[in-house]
Amino acid sequence: LSPLSPSLAFSTCRTLDLEAARLKRIEAVRGQILSKLRLPEPPSEPGPARPLPEEVRALYNSTRELLQQRERLRQPEDPRE
0.85 cut: is pTM over it? Predict the structure, then answer.
């Protein structure tokens, strides 16, 4: 063991605290999300859901109906292929 002890004394590598690095990365991602949402800080508590505007609801319903109609009109796949 004596030959190893001098080499340990000259080590310039710092130990890495993985938990601190993980927490720092979580905070960075949280900050990026808030920035993308243009919020200065996380919302304190979710409030009551706002009703959707009628235009949004109509667009959603028409899109859903169009997709259902396309599904009905689609040719059944040939099992031989």
Answer: no
